[in-house]
Request: fold
Amino acid sequence: MRLKILSMGVWEVIMRKKGLVGLLLTGFTLMLAAAGIAADKPVKIGFVYIMSGPFATYGQFAKQGAELAIDEINQAGGVNGSNVEAFFEDSTGKPDVGIRVIRKLVYENGVDVVMGLDSSGVASAVAPVMKELKTPLIITHAATPDVTGTNCNRYTFRVSLNINQNIAMAATIAAEMKAKTWTTAGPDYSFGHQSWEYFQKYLAKKKPEAAFLPAAEVAFSPAATTDFSAYVTKIMNSKADGVLISLWGGNLIDFVRQARDMGFFDGKREILMTLGAATEVLYALKEKMPEGIWVGTRYWFQANDTPLNQAFVDAYLKRFNVYPSYNAHGAYGAVKTYAAAAAKAKSVDKEKIVAALEGLSIELPVGRITIRPEDHQAVTDGVWGRTAADPKMPIRILKPIKSFAGKDITPPVEETGCKLK
Amino acid sequence: MEGLLANLLNGLSWGMLLFLISMGLTTIFGVMGVLNFAHGSLFMLGAYLSMQFMRWVGSFWVGLLLGPPIVAGLSVLLERFLLRPLYGRDVSFQLLLTFGVMLFLDDGVRLVWGAAYHVVNPPPILSGAIPFFSQSYPVYRLFIVVLGPLVGIALWAFFAYTRWGKVLRAAAMDRQMAEIVGVRVPAVFTAVFGFGAWLAALGGALAAPHQSVGPAMGERIIIESFIVVVIGGMGSFPGAFAGALILGLLNSFGTTLLPDVQMALPYILLAVILLTRPRGLFGAEA
Reply:
């Protein structure tokens, strides 16, 4: 009873002082409470990769890269003081599954950001959904130009190289080769077709006399193909002396070993493999990967001798006993990029993160990347190289390595067809 | 001419690999009436086990010899304890069970061997290539082209001429009558299932030096095997042979001549066969 009277008395005093002190007091208490909640509430990151089926190894590398980055961040005090918690989902490489698991991550797990995506098909389907979910998406592997081009939107970002950038490098290398007529071997979906389309466009600009085989004579194989002999025969019996290969994953492994047995790598044709320097592929093929072939990648662990890259490669090798692939780097880089955006925004509020990501520039193991505010594509340095044997290494390495500055390989915003504003 | 012959060999080698896998599928269906969805996973398991033995012993032949019987042994247990209780029930139960086994094996393989791709070398005697006009052709592919028909003929002779083969055919034709004359049909079924699994695993072991060994490798080949079996006629050996040849050649020549519709060709053929000859090319009339 006394207590009640006393407390009433306090409230009366506060009210008499025109509520000023009380307002300050309650405001202070609320702020304390809010800070307390923030410190307890983890930052949630949802990852969507291919975790099963023939491309599962890509998801595995990405998961390792993500875990390494998250552990580093958490040991250093987290994102803006909050621990990072990861949620991994399997897109299975199918667009409808990709959409479903992203909805689940956002609605059920309440993630603050989504990262990942391997397949261009999944990326194209998922990007428009992010508008509805109002959640930032950082793409780390899928390369279709559409998601930062005609199909771009406020919430979709990409920190990895896209097809334009990769093929711009391929065309530069091809222009210096002696091959006159080019053909392609690629997967029979948007990625393979777009790679070939941009290659023709870019190479024709650099080397107007270059010729290309018509659509009926190039080799696009369904993703489920395991026997590439018919495609190899088709290319070997065509008049092409240059081949752009955009196959990846298990398809590329099957193609290389079957083509090798059929004498495809006999030196009679110039060969470019746009994703040939994926360590997932190099570890599987080992000495079966021919030497002296030009191969591309999104990141090569020996291409950059900065302390940051060295530390990343060492930490990765020590923990997982393999060299990091570009997909491992993509996931690692995306987490670090998000942490930088959260520090810049001083918040993990989704809208503030979007604003902070626009124009963000950050040093990653691959080099400095800058996310263009106009189309959300990162301007990032690229690398190609020729495969070479090194007795000290378990896999083929790149020698020489040819690095390209991000600004030289990234088409201007006007060409992308992206209209964000 | 050169391209024509190369395409012929490409089609034959792919077709013969399909034939080896389809034979097990068609045997199990022909004798037991079970549509085995897990067949592709048994194929995959055969590839992985052979690869593992090869790594331990260093010989392709040891892998080829030891891998498939283990898969057959596992399948015998599978038939005895999981599939047998379902024979009396609706066919959908069998489909669900084999589908579940497929998922189980696909993930199990990933647990044991990881998600990475593996590469298996052909044995020294079959590696390398022989000169082929101005190009060269891999010996291993020719080996498969020869092996396919040999295994096929051996199986056909077994079913046509041996006592065991006749018992199997009897059990397939009329289960009740076979039981009346003293055939132990349940034991026959178990044996047939194990035998079909051995064929699938043999196909996997033979495919390993030819394609990458990785998770879900069976899913990619099982669809084409089903098409082969349906085109040829469920349960028919000559049918599986013809179906596999047709699909292999469609694949190689289609790639060169009709690249735009090559992917759809097997399905178009499947639709045409189902419309005109629902029992397949060599299927028995009801």
Summary: Residues 13-215 of chain B form one domain. The two ends of chain B are 44 Å apart (CA to CA). Residues 44 and 217 of chain B are 6 Å apart (CA to CA).
